[in-house]
Amino acid sequence: MSKKIVKVNVNGRVLEKAVEPRMLLVHFLREECNLTGAHIGCETSHCGACTVDIDGRSVKSCTHLAVQCEGAEVLTVEGLAKGGVLHAVQQGFYQEHGLQCGFCTPGMLMRAYRLLQENPDPSEEEVRAGMSGNLCRCTGYQNIVKAVLHAAATLRAARAAAA
Amino acid sequence: MNAPKEAGLAERASALQGMGESRLRKEDARFIQGRGNYVDDIRMPGMLHMDIVRSPLAHARIKRINKEQALAIPGVHAVLTAEDLKPLKLHWMPTLAGDVQAVLADEKVHFQMQEVAIVIADDRYIAADAVEAVEVEYEDLPVVIDPYAALAPDAPVLREDLAGKTEGAHGRREHPNHIFTWEAGDAAATEAAFAAAAVTVKARIHYPRVHPCPLETCGCVASFDPVRGELTTYLTSQAPHVVRTVVSLLSGIPESKVRIVSPDIGGGFGNKVGIYPGYVCAIVASIVLGRPVKWIEDRVENISTTAFARDYHMDGEIAATADGRILGLRTHVIADHGAFDACADPTKFPAGLFHICSGSYDIAAAYCQVKGVYTNKAPGGVAYRCSFRVTEAVYLVERMVDILAQKLGLDKAEIRRRNFIRKEQFPYTSPFGFEYDSGDYHTALDKVLAAVDYPALRAEQAATRANPASPTLMGIGLVSFTEVVGAGPSKMCDILGVGMFDSCEIRVHPTGSAIARMGTITQGQGHQTTYAQIIATELGIPSEVIQVEEGDTSTAPYGLGTYGSRSTPVAGAAIALAARKIHAKARKIAAHLLEVGENDLDWEIDRFKVKGDDSRFKTMQDISWAAYHQAPPGLEPGLEAVHYYDPPNFTFPFGIYLCVVDIDRATGETKVRRFLALDDCGTRINPMIIEGQIHGGLTEGFAVAMGQQMPFDAQGNLLGNTLMDYFLPTAVETPKWETDHTVTPSPHHPLGAKGVAESPHVGSIPTFTAAVVDAFAHLGVDNMTMPHNAYRVWQQLRDCGAAL
Asked: ipTM of this predicted complex?
């Protein structure tokens, strides 16, 4: 199959790669970019383990083609921590025991990262609704909800301190 | 005057982060940064990809397989069928249950999605193309889906390969589709109890077929090195050492040249106990092609083929006195095992530990019989987050006790209180011969009833029932459960002849840090965190500097793996006893260094000190250093130990769960208003992790009770094998959980710990059913079949004339 060149900014680095037009973004990230944080759990957009951030939106990369990302900015879980400092959502999941097997975690973190920009001060119910595109089989969500609220508080405090 | 010293002790103890501390997890750093190492993350030079051609039909003869078009696709290296595996004698394989299973379909297919051929290609896209290009011609055969129909005299014979075999792995086979009949208890005594009883009840309790469905599917990367003759396979296994033994036996490669590695595992829940055709095929492909081969299931393959659970049709009966004292329990079960008996149970127990079905009750006489049956469905029968059919057993007894209570007009708490095994009866021998180690059921029940103000809930329910305009029905589910976990004593439990012990090796390094290697494998339970806590408390080494490694058969001592809540009861004990061997040696070294007798020393948190003289002591760090350069004369240098722990008995965790539901009379939707889980798992090692495990187990139980099922049509098509159809609850549907605990240590376990992670699954499922049924109890309903989704509950509303 003939290949197409795709130029995409992944975690702040511009990459240019020749890929088959049918290649899914999640395979592009995992196999072409060696970023194995995004996982494949269902291939049908239900589980959200493959969630990444594209141009400011949460996207399930298992049902998105790599070529659709031409010129886009993609952020994956590997790009969340900056300068060795964990992002507030990562810290929240650690502090609140928001993960067990870890398989859903990268997708959960990327969704939480975007959710807290869409809604910086969510209620518990809003967190549950906002995270409902991501499935977890281990935690029962209770600590994931706590983790997201923990991160929300941290981010609000940081913003208040900066203001 | 002692205060500063006490504070110092508390600080020292706390610095260790030992048992009882809610220590944050050591595993998390890699998972929150995308640095986990799951099997699909593994890439090897020259690696090829395998995909599987599967049968669209549930029962059919294979007339012809044409590989030509697939082989013509650039990048396709091989297409293999049963014919190709035959010369290697690998087209069939033994199962853990004493049956055989086709690795690739041999002349006929026995279930939809059965493995028919494999293709190996440069990448997963080409492999998927090649799967489409393989042509298979089938001739339909009559399909048998109902296990009762399978036993009809004129039923089609499913397993032609077993023709004439009247003796199975578990005794006589009475019918071509019959696998085994297994029984336990005392049939005659039970019959006598029923004959004399004032009251008897009987019900058919169906536990539908479900799937554990961890978020990561199964898969492997097999790499055979033809020069060294060595096979390394990274594989999603809850029992890597057993896999190594089986692979060696099947392939003829010496076990010393087979290395199985379970890397990070994205959830198991029983799905990753079995040895599946895909693994075997990938290994064969790697041997044939001399290159690494990766196989990763997709979700449809996962739900359709690897490891269903349950599918028990149980006829339960209870005999009781007029005031509700249970005299006898009896059950006959038809167990649908699918096309091959590939259940993962200890060898001697084809129905697992189902004979825990007398539950938390003191019942004088009991009997159970389980008949295993072949049908045209996928094989499996794994313990989905439970210990070998304990979930089915608890469901049966809890349903039956509720049915009895309703018949007698007794409150569901009161009937339990009247029949519980009393605290002073432990150790208690059940009518099936289990020796329950410890328990205090009445205290746990009282605690739960007080926490929810049970009388007030019942009063509210009565008021709701009295109001014909109420938009909802209110139900209260109350369940007590006793599990049997920690398999198990090797006198009773083995897998393929290997006793179900587990193991630990600890090495303390010269500078006082340590590594522990284990025969188990974590799948999210947090072993790297909790195991280190045990060692920290036993040896006074900070858990921060204790590494825990599992899953690599080349470095870890042999163990039977992680399932059936056996890690803490079995491996946890191995850790404690290995640590105590080191502790004993450390005492000798300390005595030598301090120039006193061993008996002149006291152990205090992280040091040995001379009795009566706080100023003379040696810390574990001092002792570790000394072990490597000035060990006492006659003592070997070094500070390490290995322990293989063969448990003297199972452990018996228990709990009391209570659930309140409100059912919408217009839509049939069930809202869980409240769920309180009180668990007693004995000694608690990390309360944070225990609570997390309970939340997860309750949520899986909620999924099973309220939505999961694997329905088949008459042609054997599985109706629902994607996450579109198979119910995994989101954060929105999932109830909020309340937890509580009591602590009744196991008297025979070195730490007193019993295991916990499966209790919430086992206990919650009957609780949800009990709550839903209780909402209808005043309308004469005493049982309903799972899953209690809105449509099914609405049908019940309609049938009772209660729908709005």
From this structure: 0.98
CB contact under 8 A, B34 and A77: yes
- Please answer yes or no on whether B524 and A138 come within 8 Å at the CB atom: yes
CATH of domain B308-487+650-800: 3.30.365.10
The SS3 assignment for B379 reads coil
Q: Residue B719: its pLDDT value, please?
A: 95
* Residue B296 contacts residue B217 (beta carbons within 8 Å): yes
- Picking from B334, B313, B480, B316, the residue whose alpha carbon sits closest to that of residue B404 is B316
CB B356 within 8 A of CB B168: no
- For domain B3-36+502-645, the CATH architecture is 2-Layer Sandwich (3.30)
Residue B145 to residue B622: CA distance in whole angstroms: 67
CB contact under 8 A, A138 and B688: no
pLDDT at B6: 66
Q: Which residues contact B283 (CB under 8 A, 6 or more apart)?
A: B220, B222, B224, B231, B233, B247, B251, B293
CA gap B607, B622 in Å, rounded:
9
Q: B216 and A39: CB-CB below 8 Å?
A: yes
- State in Å, rounded, how far the first CA of chain B is from the last one: 72
**Do you know the residue count of chain B?**
804
Collapsed DSSP state (helix, strand, coil) of residue B797: helix
Q: Among A78, A129, A137, whose Cβ lies nearest the Cβ of B213?
A: A137
Find tokens 């045990």 and name the residue.
B534
Mapped onto helix, strand or coil, the DSSP state of residue B591 is: helix
Q: Which residues contact B450 (CB under 8 A, 6 or more apart)?
A: none
Phi-psi region of A65 (alpha: psi -120 to 50; beta: other; left: phi over 0): beta
Per the CB < 8 A criterion, the answer to whether A47 and B215 are in contact is: yes
- Domain residue limits, chain B: 3-36+502-645, 39-141+217-265+273-305, 308-487+650-800
- Least Cα separation, residue B133 to chain A (angstroms): 16
What pLDDT, in 10s, does the model give residues B41-82? Answer: 999 999 999 999 999 999 999 999 999 999 999 999 999 999
Q: DSSP per residue over B338-356, as a string?
A: ESS------TT-TTTTGGG
Q: Give whole-number Cα distances, B268 to B218, B232, B498, B570, B785, in Å.
A: 9, 21, 22, 19, 26
Q: Let me know if B386 is a catalytic residue.
A: yes
For residue A62, the distance in angstroms to the closest alpha carbon of chain B comes to: 12
Q: Measured between CB atoms, which of A43, A106, A131 is closest to B34?
A: A106
* Residue B67 DSSP symbol: -
Among B17, B238, B708, B796, which one carries the catalytic annotation?
Answer: B238
CA angle B166, B172, B177 (to 5 degrees): 65
Domains and CATH numbers, chain A: 4-79 (3.10.20.30), 88-162 (1.10.150.120)
Those residues with Cβ within 8 angstroms of residue A70's Cβ, 6 or more apart along the chain or in another chain: A6, A7, A8
Using CA atoms, how far residue B174 sits from B48, B55, B153, B713, B739, in Å, is 46, 29, 10, 27, 48
Confidence of residue B428 (pLDDT cuts 50, 70, 90): very high
* Range B39-141+217-265+273-305 has CATH code 3.90.1170.50: yes
Kindly state the average pLDDT of the residues B230-235: 98
B385 in catalytic set: yes
User: Is the Cβ–Cβ distance between B773 and B783 less than 8 Å?
Assistant: yes
In this complex, do B728 and A80 lie within 8 Å of one another by their Cβ atoms?
no
- Neighbouring CB atoms inside 10 A of B346's CB total 22
Amino acid at site B84: D
The yes-or-no answer to whether B3-36+502-645 and B308-487+650-800 have a common fold is yes
DSSP 8-state assignment for residue B361: B
Residue of A nearest to B737 (CA): A142
Predicted pLDDT at B1: 42
